[in-house]
Amino acid sequence: FVDFHVYRQLNRFNIVDLFSLGGSGPGVFHPIRLQVPAQIRDWAKTYLRHAGLPDFWIGIQVGASDPMKAWRPEYFGQAMAHLSQHRQVGFVLIGTKKEEADVQEAIKCYRGVGGKGIICEAVGHTTVPQLIALLEHCQLMVTNDTGPMHMAVGVNTPVLNVSVGHVDFWETGPFGPGNWVIQPDILCGPCGFDKICPHHACKDHIRSREVAELCLHLLGAGPFPSFSSRIRVYEGSLNEDQLGTFILRAGTEEARVAWYAEFWRQYWYELFTGDTSRVPYSTAPPPDFHGCEELWDNLFPQISQLCRQADMVLELCRQKPIPVDLLKAGQGQLSVDTLAMQQVARPSLAFGPLAMAFFRETFSLEASTLAGMAEENAHAYHTFHVRAGEIFTRLAEKVTHDPRRALYACEIG
Fold first, then answer.
1. How many CB atoms lie within 10 A of CB 5?
2. CA–CA separation, 301 vs 313, rounded Å?
């Protein structure tokens, strides 16, 4: 569900939580904490003392494994400079050797716009344990979506994640309370993993001054800032299911997307766990229910017919000898009609996520025999049929019922 770009905006699960739910199941929030050996902690303390004694150390990760998900180096430099002009701060610049050029560009910009704070350059100079120890000594980390970001979370250092490019912070953002995310409000973001972007405009929506002012607030050195209309700001938190979540603190979300994000979170949680989610969500009807109803009038007969076709293909595969020509014709027609159904379902926020889950299931067959694969394939169609019926019933329950909806519910049941 979370790896299809068109529906990523509906995901409300961090990958950490998906791993947890798939393993131990629901439970109490218990994040992994990294333990720093005493000698490594002492090393970091000495390393930073040699650089200076600011009031605050702030970890800065300018680079990222993919340039697509890295905020511009000059913006990091500008934000650092603004911070240094308002508080006695020092910056621990981290990263790998391949990020050295971006780091130097950030430093050049920092000094060019009047940066005053101490800079401790640790880029390419630390082991992983040493890096973790340095982050433990920081009062804040400002970073792209990176591995060190999660290391900072692991040692309880608050994180401000600048989330750009193809990064969706709901999937991989800094996990748990005390962490923050700033994200551009742009129609094309987050983009697909295979996207080749000609403009990287999302990075320009996030203003360095606003990032710096948010940092000051997180350090207890300033009020919560006013932000432009081009960004959203989220605070990490826990929900009633003891899973990580983010609370919108500035900016707006599209009402339809926000409604379906809550709706799908409830549905997937129940499907994953077998339990009812304790997270409250809107009792208002879906904002586009009239369109959903019209779509369902077309989609329900299509899915029902596809189930019959998949069953027919299964029966042909079980015959001995297999009627090859009939099987080819039946499978060919099933493929054509399935594509037609997908074109109806996929644009819909009400049924598209299920259509994508169904699509994945039909391409993840594990049986080694033709009949076995046909059986798994038919099962995927029937599962989609049942789930789609459940979804429409849930949507219809939020509005005034009519006989047609009751009829559909009976037929599906």
1. 14
2. 19
The pLDDT of residue 229: 83
- Please give the angle made by the CA atoms of 28, 34 and 39, to the nearest 5 degrees: 150
Cβ neighbours for 32, distance < 8 A, ≥ 6 positions apart: 154
Q: What is the mean pLDDT of residues 185-210?
A: 88
Quick check: 313 and 331 in contact, CB under 8 A? yes
Is it true that the peptide bond before 321 is cis, omega within 30 degrees of 0?
yes
Q: Tens digits of per-residue pLDDT, 270-328?
A: 999 999 999 998 889 999 999 999 999 999 999 999 999 999 999 999 999 999 999 99
| Gap between the terminal Cα atoms of the chain | 25
What is the CATH architecture assignment of 5-257? 3-Layer(aba) Sandwich (3.40)
Query: For 380, left (φ over 0), alpha (ψ -120 to 50), or beta?
Result: alpha
| Lowest mean pLDDT across 25-34, 196-205, 231-240 | 25-34
pLDDT at residue 407 above 90?
no
pLDDT bucket at 6, cuts 50 / 70 / 90? low
User: Distance between CA atoms of 400 and 397, rounded to whole angstroms?
Assistant: 7
Residue 413 above 50 pLDDT?
Answer: no
Q: Which residue, among 66, 370, 51, 82, has the nearest Cα to 209 in the 3D structure?
A: 82
Task: Parse the chain into domains and list their residue ranges.
Answer: 5-257, 289-412
Handedness of CA 189, 169, 245, 217 (dihedral sign): negative
CB 129 within 8 A of CB 7: no
Q: Could you tell me the pLDDT band of residue 400, with boundaries at 50, 70 and 90?
A: low
Q: Which two tokens stand for residue 301?
A: 């007969």
- Residue whose entry in the numeric block shows the structure tokens 């303390």: 45
Q: Do 68 and 165 form a contact (C-beta atoms < 8 A)?
A: yes
Mean of all residue pLDDT scores within the chain: 92
d(CA 171, CA 66): 17
Helices and strands in the chain, H and E counts: 16, 8
For the stretch 313-345, pLDDT in tens is 999 999 999 999 999 999 999 999 999 999 999
State the DSSP H helix or E strand holding residue 212, giving kind and residue range, or none if neither.
helix 208-218
Question: Do you find a cis peptide bond into 67, omega within 30 degrees of 0?
Answer: no
Q: Are 130 and 155 in contact (CB under 8 A)?
A: no
Q: How far apart are CA 78 and CA 84, in angstroms?
A: 10
The half-sphere exposure of 93 on its side-chain side, counting CA atoms within 13 A, is 25
